[in-house]
């Protein structure tokens, strides 16, 4: 838990998912810079403020009750953090409206504060959606730590909003100010699509998906070695992305009951569209969630997973380890977790701490496919 102090509030904030001895803060200097600028410019209670990609709710909680605040982002974990941080600081749950990135936030907005996301395609889609959503005289300001602020972010703001001005650096953070101007309605390049040859599938991918333009090489390696058990198995695709692992498995096992889970709203949106295209009205559960946190214990026979090794800009295996723990809890005795991972990550060592049997199913020069039995 960290204390975040700005002219608007003093808050105690946590990240999601929580971990003991959390090494990272739930905010950074770019959040502070954005709020200081907003305070200097003046904010009135009637202003409508749109927050984009407010990681763990630092901006939203600071402004709750100070204006009409809408927060929009693609992270279910970020949404959970917002809810918990509002409650932790005695703020009403309805003080901030949340809109998943799979939907469009409806304006008009007087202020738009943007935390520049890691995936610039997400930023582009968000800027495109601002068309006709800005009030007269609206101000659009983006903030980021300089090391995470590519030139292309400013170019996108200039393309879709208007002339750009950059601030001086403060505490290694920078702000970008875009002056809205009249522009023709833009045409979004998202979602994108690519084709899979075997099995023959066309996969739709919304803006924030990993490897949006083509199948990533880890998943490609995994598809060649998916388990081939048949029957009425209960199967989860954990961290499903566009749903390709679960969909391909389901195509090979007509009796399997599938659950597709991801913390990205755009991933879940993509997976749902791809499932319908490939499997029609076949029953399935597809949801945005904190991994398998809400999955009942002993309710799955098989979990498929290509785990992430980063959360926003932070790199590490914390999320993967947590997913392994969740899978272990959700699997029946004798159930299996199958994963693909980079060789150098050494997932087999961690899996042996949880599962009674861990085998290497296959390997490429870069990846290993592992099977862990509960």
From TrEMBL:
Function: Specifically methylates the guanine in position 1835 (m2G1835) of 23S rRNA.
Matching CDD domains: AdoMet_MTases
Organism phylogeny: Bacteria, Pseudomonadati, Pseudomonadota, Gammaproteobacteria, Pseudomonadales
The species this protein was found in: Pseudomonas kuykendallii
Main localization of the protein described in the UniProt heading: cytoplasm
Cellular-component GO terms for this entry: cytoplasm
Subcellular location, record wording: Cytoplasm
A GO term, aspect molecular function: nucleic acid binding
Protein name: Ribosomal RNA large subunit methyltransferase G
Uppermost EC category: transferase
Record key words, sorted: Cytoplasm, Methyltransferase, rRNA processing, S-adenosyl-L-methionine, Transferase
Pfam families noted in UniProt: MTS (PF05175), RLMG_N (PF26049)
EC number(s) stated in the UniProt entry for this protein: 2.1.1.174
InterPro entries: DNA_methylase_N6_adenine_CS, RLMG, RlmG_N, RsmC/RlmG, SAM-dependent_MTases_sf, Small_mtfrase_dom
Protein family (similarity comment): Belongs to the methyltransferase superfamily. RlmG family.
All residue ranges annotated as the Methyltransferase small domain in the record: 201-371
Record's catalysed reaction(s): guanosine(1835) in 23S rRNA + S-adenosyl-L-methionine = N(2)-methylguanosine(1835) in 23S rRNA + S-adenosyl-L-homocysteine + H(+)
Domain RlmG N-terminal: 1-181
């Amino acid at each position: 838990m960290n204390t975040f102090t700005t002219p608007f509030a003093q808050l105690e904030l946590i990240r999601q998912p929580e971990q003991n001895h959390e090494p990272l803060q739930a905010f950074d200097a770019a959040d502070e810079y954005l709020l200081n600028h907003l305070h200097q410019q003046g904010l009135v209670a009637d202003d409508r403020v749109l927050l984009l990609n407010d990681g763990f709710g630092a901006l939203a909680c600071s402004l709750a009750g100070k204006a009409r605040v809408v927060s929009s982002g693609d992270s279910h974990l970020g949404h959970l953090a917002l809810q918990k941080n509002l409650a932790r600081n005695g703020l009403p749950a309805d003080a901030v409206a949340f809109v998943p990135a799979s939907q469009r936030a409806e304006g008009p907005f007087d202020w738009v504060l943007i935390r520049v996301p890691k995936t610039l395609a997400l930023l582009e889609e968000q800027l495109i959606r601002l068309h006709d959503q800005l009030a007269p005289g609206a101000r659009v300001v983006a903030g980021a730590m300089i090391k995470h602020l590519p030139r292309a972010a400013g170019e996108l703001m200039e393309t879709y909003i208007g002339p750009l001005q950059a601030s001086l650096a403060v505490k290694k953070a920078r702000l970008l100010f875009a002056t809205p101007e009249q522009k023709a309605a833009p045409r979004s390049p998202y979602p994108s699509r690519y084709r899979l040859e075997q099995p023959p599938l066309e996969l739709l991918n919304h803006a924030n998906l990993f490897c949006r333009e083509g199948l990533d090489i880890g998943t490609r390696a995994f598809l060649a070695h998916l388990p081939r058990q048949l029957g009425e198995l209960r199967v989860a695709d954990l961290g499903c992305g566009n749903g390709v692992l679960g969909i391909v498995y389901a195509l090979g096992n007509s009796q399997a009951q599938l659950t597709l889970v991801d913390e990205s709203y755009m991933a879940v949106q993509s997976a749902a569209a791809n499932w319908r295209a490939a499997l029609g009205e076949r029953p399935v559960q597809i949801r945005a969630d904190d991994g398998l946190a809400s999955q009942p214990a002993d309710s799955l026979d098989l979990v498929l997973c290509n785990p992430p090794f980063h959360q926003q800009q932070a790199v590490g295996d914390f999320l993967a380890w947590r997913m392994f723990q969740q899978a272990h809890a959700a699997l029946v005795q004798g159930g299996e977790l199958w994963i693909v991972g980079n060789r150098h990550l050494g997932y087999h060592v961690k899996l042996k701490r949880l599962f009674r049997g861990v085998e290497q199913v296959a390997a490429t020069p870069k990846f290993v496919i592992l099977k862990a039995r509960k």
